[in-house]
Specification:
Layout lengths: L6 H9 L1 H5 L7 H5 L9 E5 L5 H8 L4 E6 L2 H10 L5 E5 L12 E6 L9 H11 E12 L1 H5 L6 E2 L5 E3 L10 E6 L2 E6 L3 H11 L2 E7 L15 E8 L3
Parallel strand pairs: 1-2, 1-4, 2-3, 4-5
Antiparallel strand pairs: 5-11, 6-7, 8-9, 10-11
Helix pairs in contact: 6-8
The chain binds S-adenosylmethionine.
């Protein structure tokens, strides 16, 4: 069962600002939004759509059709309730098992999902093949700085004030266990080489890479693990 289908975890996720306020409540949004390509008349695939905020944004920006997949039944149910639109097809599906029909989408997006995936190369290859030539893959993934730390928690002083974030075992891309919303969560630490060279080997051309900055007025030590954002293009012969 997906962790996101655990009732207690799901209830805590529902209390997060990103769940209550949508994209404006998501710390990475202001930066991520600026990287979006033109969506007018485009066909879009949203990998790990969650509540469907990005899918809804895509149709609001003029996308013609959005396929939005997620492995959590509760997420898909919530997306259909909160962000329904005749142009969005929400599907309960693991992104590793999705069919990725060839040369079908203009834009593939994925927000805060790929750190749950061990084999990034496989997904990169599939995304490349399902994009039309010149299509874009816009995604973010937890930054290796944040996934590297053993335990993935701030080191605090005796009063609980965060002092620093420990980076350890950076060079060993493996499964990492961390706590999120009071639950043990399994994520994969990927090195910069894996994240960037994997894209190159899949055939993508790099357009932009950005480290997510703390949002204005946010506590730098908030519980969001800051992602890195990437925009790449699939040029095909
Ligand atoms: C942090 S949430 C982000 C949701 C959404 N992209 C957003 O930004 O609002 C991570 C999402 O990834 C989904 N997810 C995790 N592993 C997945 C997989 N293998 N296939 C599809 N979805 C997955 C979870 O169910 C969850 O909805």
């Amino acid at each position: 069962m997906s962790l996101y289908d655990n009732p207690d975890f799901f209830a805590s996720y529902a209390q997060m600002s990103r769940s209550q306020c949508g994209l404006d409540g998501a710390g990475e949004w202001q930066q991520f939004q600026k990287l979006f390509p033109d969506l007018k008349g485009k066909t879009v695939l949203d990998l790990g759509c969650g509540y469907g905020w990005h899918s809804k944004y895509a149709v609001q920006m003029g996308a013609e059709a959005v396929t939005a997949i997620d492995t959590s039944a509760k997420m898909i149910e919530t997306a259909k309730a909160k962000n329904a639109d005749a142009r969005i097809d929400y599907q309960l599906c693991d992104l590793r098992a999705f069919g990725y029909p060839e040369n079908t989408y203009d834009v593939v997006i994925s927000n805060l999902v790929l750190h749950y995936i061990e084999d990034l190369d496989e997904i990169y290859r599939k995304v490349f093949s399902c994009l039309k030539s010149g299509g874009s893959f816009l995604f973010n993934i937890e930054h290796p700085t944040f996934t590297a730390g053993v335990g993935q928690e701030w080191i605090t002083d005796e009063n609980g004030t965060p002092l620093y974030w420990p980076v350890d075992d950076y060079f060993y891309p493996t499964l990492r266990q961390t706590m999120f919303l009071g639950h043990k969560v399994e994520k994969y630490h990927h090195t910069l080489t894996q994240i960037l060279m994997g894209l190159k080997h899949a055939g993508f051309t790099l357009e932009a890479v950005e480290d997510a900055l703390p949002p204005p007025n946010a506590d730098f030590h908030d519980e969001m693990r800051r992602p890195m954002m990437l925009l790449v293009r699939a040029d095909k012969p």
